[in-house]
Each structure stands twice: as C-alpha cells, then as structure tokens.
Amino acid sequence: MKVIAIGNQKGGVGKTTTAINLSAALTLLGQRVLLIDLDPQANTTSGLGAEAEGGDTLYPVLLGECDIREKIQPSRLERMWLIPSSMDLAGVEIELARADDHLTRLRVLLQGLKPNDLFDFCILDTPPSLGVLMTSALASADEVVIPLQCEWFGLEGLAKIVHVLEQIKASGASPDLKLEGIVMTMYDARTNLSRQVVEEVNNYFPQEMYKTFIPRSIRLGEAPSHGRTIFEHDQYGLGAQAYLELGKEFLSRHGIATA
Length: 259
Prior knowledge:
By secondary structure, the protein is of the alpha/beta class. The protein has one domain: P-loop containing nucleotide triphosphate hydrolases (Rossmann fold), CATH 3.40.50.300. It is 41% helix and 14% strand. The protein has eleven helices and seven strands. It has helices at 15-28, 43-47, 59-62, 90-97, 105-111, 132-140, 152-171, 192-204, 218-222, 230-233, 238-253; strands at residues 2-6, 33-37, 73-74, 80-83, 121-125, 143-149, 178-185. The radius of gyration is 17 Å and the shape is globular. The chain starts with a strand and ends in a 6-residue tail after the last helix. 47% of the residues are buried.
C-alpha cells in the first residue's frame, strides 16, 4: 500500500475534488483504495454521500483508544473504502500538539496497514492549513500530490508547501517523502492566465507537473452537493474524462499498466 497525501494549505484549489475523483478513477482502473478524510470540515465525507457517526473518525485512533481497522468502512463504490471525518476531528489537533510524536503517530498507524495488503493506495485528504493534522498527514505519506489552481496566487502557495515538504524531510519524520506531482486544476485554455501559470509551473517542476489538466467545470462543482463522484454525476463530461486520464497518468508513473 502506498500512502498519497493530497495537500495544499490554500483552500479552494480543488484538493477535495481531486482526492475524491482521483480515488474514484483509480477504483475504476482496478485499484483498491482507502480514502481517509483528515479535514474537520468533512467535505470528502459529504462529497461521497457519507456521514461520520459517533467516533467513526480517526480521532480515537490518533489518541490510541482503538485500532485503525475499526474505523474503515466500505463506500458504495466498488474497491473503495473510507475513514470519514467530522468537526470533532478539530479537537485532535490540540491533543496531538501536546504529544512528542505528533508528526509520526499517523505514519506509524498507516504503516501497520501495509503488511495486510488490503489496499493498493491510501489517499489522504488534508485540511487547507498548516496545522498539526496537515503536517501529520504529510509526514505519514510516501508521496504528495499538490492540486494547484491556475491562478497567480496558487504559485505563492506552491512555494510554501514545497518548503514545508523539505522541512518535514529534514526533520527526519519522513526523510524519503516525495513530491509525486502537481495537478493543475480549474484550467481554462481560453485564458492567457491559465496558460501562463501552467508555463511557469512547468519551468520549475517539469517532471512533477501532470500532463493532464483538470478543467474548470460546473459539473465538478455540482457533484459533491449530490454526494457523488464526477463519474456518477456526469459520466461522459469533460471533468470525468480528465480525472480518468489523471488516474491513468498516476498509475503509469507508478509502473502500473492500464487498458
């Protein structure tokens, strides 16, 4: 099982949309995916039409009160499992901040799932901040995928999160952490701005930038309000096509062939 964090401390960049729909694309391509919602706003959870009841989140797991396997629940999608979130998860930041192992605790928990070979990928949807949950998620990941909206402010956010990744590696919490890729979101080929931002990112991160761009799409924005992935909401639309191509490119980078 490879752990992939979808991270960007800036909100509104398509992070949750990418976490949900990249995960869904991977399942359509035959992969077994565990999707973990680490954002107390729980947008990934509601975007899949799910709900956290009682202590169904990672809260008690991170406090050592139960096993992580107890919180894994099947989603309605074939080959996808979910650990949901709720606002209660915000409280764990305070608890974790007091712990000496706050950067590595989640990593240890996820490492415990790897020998079971239950999942091919674990996708972490992270909060849009640089708090304890976000840094814990980054430190627990093998790789990080950064969604980046095609706007100039996005470039500032990219520089910051790349710096955070370097800090986490230098701290020893995750020395092999890799920037797996940068996904350009909300791309509009008709505008000079989108093209200029893409060109700028390509200049600095030519190997990391995905060739598949996620278009600006009303359907992608609508789907979470119905608790659906884009493949359920608009199966033949541009958004679904883009995320399926993104899934194929992602697997190709990991040496996995697709039909």
